[in-house]
Amino acid sequence: MSVFSRLSSTWRTLFRKSRLEHDLDEELRAVVETLVDRHTAQGMSEESARRAARVMLGGVEPIKDAIRDVRAGVQIELMLSDIRYGLRTLTKSPAFTAAAILSLALGIGANTAIFTFINALLLRPLPVRDPSSLVEVTAERRDGRGLLSFPMYRAIAERQHVLTGIAATAGETPTRVTIPTGSGTGSEIDNVRVSFVSGNYFSVLGVDAAVGRLFSPDDDKNLDSANTAGSVIVLSDAFWERQFGRDPSMVGRSIFIRRARCQVIGVTPRGFVGEVIGNAADGWVPLTAFSSRQDLLKGTAFFGRLMPGVASAQAQASLTLLFQQLLAAEGLTGVLREQHSIALQSAAAGVDFSMRRTYLKPLFIAMGMVAVVLLIACANIANLLLARAAARAGEISVRLALGCSRSRLVRQLLTESVLLSLMGAALGLLVSRWASQSLAEMALGGSVGLRLNLSPDIRVFAFLAALSIATAIAFGLVPALRSTRVDLAPAVKGLRRGGGSMAKQRASRLLVVCQVALSMLLLIGAGLLVRSFQKLHQQDLGFTTAHVLIFSLGHGAADRTPAAMAAVERAARQRVAAIPGVASASFSGFMIFSQSDIGSPFTIPGYPPLTNEPLTARYDSVSPGHFETIGMTIVAGRPFEDRDDAVDATPVTVVNESFARHFLSEHPAEAIGRTIVLGAGAGKVKTFEVVGVVHDAKYNNLREAPKPLFFLPYAQMTRSLRSLEVRTTQPLSAVAGPIRDALSSVTKDIMIRGIVPLAEQVDQSLAAEQLLLRLCVLFGGLALLLACIGLYGVVAYSIAERTTEIGIRVALGATPASVMRGVLRDTLALVVAGIAIGIPAALAAGRLLITFLYGLTPRDPATLAFATLTLLASAALAAALPALRAARIDPNVALRYE
User: 393 and 147 in contact (C-beta within 8 Å)?
Assistant: First the structure.
């Protein structure tokens, strides 16, 4: 049969059934009449002829059934029949149906929400042309220092022959944008995410303009350009809509970026927000127009597109060889060749700076946790189905007695399970939309410009469909098989209890044990993370977080001479410190707990270096009052004073205890007066005298021991102001406005990017741990609740099944207390069995949490004891009500119908 004929036959089977049945009746009637005529012609009477015709055919109805079974589309017809019957059956048990759908919606929705987040981080391709050929280009070196600067990028781009192009980006920076108005003034917008990119950025990505045009290589400016006027900017569709209402006349008009006029030349397509995962750019400007030569010498991010037919490994080998040749030409031959290489990574789903490294592992662990919760929900529903099977035993037995095959009944029961699962999945999709947004808010918070595309795509829907089917099989297969394994004789006679009852009880008890074991697994995980988080916050931070606010700053200074930068810092600090309610204030070049780990090379007279390379240590340039503001204690010498806050002041430094012990002296007091020399080689060097030693502090990582760190007066090592620290007893709302006004009164070059209490800043450094902790506690509590509900159901059903037995025991002298003890003893036996399985499983799974634990191991006795006691107490409460009902059974009522 051709495909067209089969489709036509299927259509008639499904939508022309009455006509088919009429035609079948006519054909069979014609066959019968033909046989009757044949037999009549042979001398039979009409009655005998008809009887002989029916015998020859073997019966009309069996022939009809045989013909229907071979029609195209009959399986679809049977499936639709099963679905209709399943829906009727489920509507007859609304309480059961609602409980099952709600449980499945929570489990499937939570799984889908986690997968949606993982999909956005790892799987969703960039909305560009042929994203599979995009690669991230990075330089690797054994000591970890980057060598792929902007000039090196240009040299490689000009000489390579394996990529269709290499683009550069200096990342996104919150920037103040001024939009001119008709009155000659302008409206200012802070924290606009502007990305600085090369002229071929959009052509390499394969992005076309929605309005106007995008960059071309001609838009790149020359390095060290004294005038950036005439620069251009491309706006994102989201920013264009948010700020300008999608006004097409904006193309051709000018706005100001860092006081430089930029002409709007185009708008990107809807949905394109850049190549970096989790970041949403508002606009793009040429990289060289807004960066000095010194900035471009620093590490810059690069990506390219593989030429057709060129494999990633082939391109990587070719670029590595070219890279080594260029390094040799620059005279960088003092290290082994194998220490330098170019690495290519797929950028099809975007370039990752930190999002994947921070959140992927917690999300995969969370996916395992919600899968456990879903398994517990499946066990609950399976127990409910086993209980329903006892009530439907008569129906199933009659259908089997009438000739229905067991496989046909199993398919019918599985269809009901699939319907439940699909209805749960439909509601779970709504749950996942809300949960994924809540998860993103929990993980990303209010960070400027951070955004993930969490809309469901084909991968999310495929995951949802596969999970729904797998879930239906998980909770429906065993009950379906057990429900159809019945002894027909007692079932048809109406006897409810038989040999199958004990088997169903054993299955229910086994499911409860599994639920308890899985709950134990999640409770131990949650307990470990809670105790680890407590230990992280109980340690000595080396500073005080109370009453300290951190202002994250954007500082695009027009005059970057040391004298001008120092004057701005000094004036701004004095203005802020004069605000009522401000006890002290200080500026710094790096924000505390910003995860930056920038070091500076130095030498120490009299300190023998272990290698030919200079020593390095982390440093920060801070203003006077910094240690007092954040509560760091000076253990020797003095802190910075106003006399140090001048460009021509005597160069001084304050070091922490780790620096002093490692490089200067075991005794902090002996470090006072020693000197360190910054800079190395033929470059500019400067000698600084140690005037103070500050107590060690966890300056940017709670998990690491304090590292050697030294501080320099801001005026003696000027850089962009990145952080303002304010100690105040006033609430944030009372000082934010005055501080903003104070900074604006000094210069318009400083922009406040964000304000956060120091305690929250410290907590944000544990973003991954906090996300996993919250999810583990949430799902651990949900697992415990589901396990208790399942335990309650099994105990209650068991007591209902044993009503006669309990009635006999009471009639023979058993006391209510002994009945209760028996029920509780049986219940706790199930719980203890589950705990015995759950603890080893938790210890094995605890290895996944080791990187998130601090100060304890997965075998922590306190956590194991807490989880065990919690489960035992919860189980006792869950079993208390059924046990009380068992103790109140009246033997006269229980035995009345026996």
Answer: no
Cβ atoms of 410 and 480 within 8 Å: the answer is: yes
Question: Phi first, then psi: what are they for 91, rounded to 5°?
Answer: -70, -20
| pLDDT at residue 40 tops 80 | yes
Q: What is the pTM of this model?
A: 0.80
Domain parsing of the chain, residue ranges: 3-72, 78-124+357-496, 131-346, 501-541+759-898, 557-748
The vertex-504 CA angle with 498 and 509, nearest 5°, equals 135
Return the closest-CA partner of residue 31 out of 54, 65, 62. 54
User: Rounded to an integer, what distance in angstroms lies between the CA atom of residue 674 and that of residue 71?
Assistant: 97
pLDDT above 70: residue 422: yes
pLDDT of 9 > 80? The answer is no
DSSP state of 846: G
336: phi then psi, degrees, rounded to nearest 5: -65, 145
Confidence of residue 674 (pLDDT cuts 50, 70, 90): very high
**β 254-257/186-197 pair status:** unpaired
Answer yes or no: is pLDDT of 609 > 60.
Answer: yes
Residue the block writes with tokens 């620069």: 231
List the alpha helices (DSSP H) in 578-639. Answer: 626-630
Q: Predicted confidence band at 58 (pLDDT cuts at 50, 70, 90)?
A: low
- 521-545 tens-digit pLDDT: 999 999 999 999 889 888 888 899 8
Other beta carbons within 10 Å of 22: 11
Average pLDDT over residues 110-126: 91
Q: Which of 137, 140, 114, 136 is nearest to 126 (CA)?
A: 136
- What ranges make up the beta strands (E) of 708-823? 709-713, 723-728, 750-757
Tell me the chain's radius of gyration from C-alpha atoms. Answer: 38
Note whether 412 and 82 are within 8 A (CB).
Answer: yes
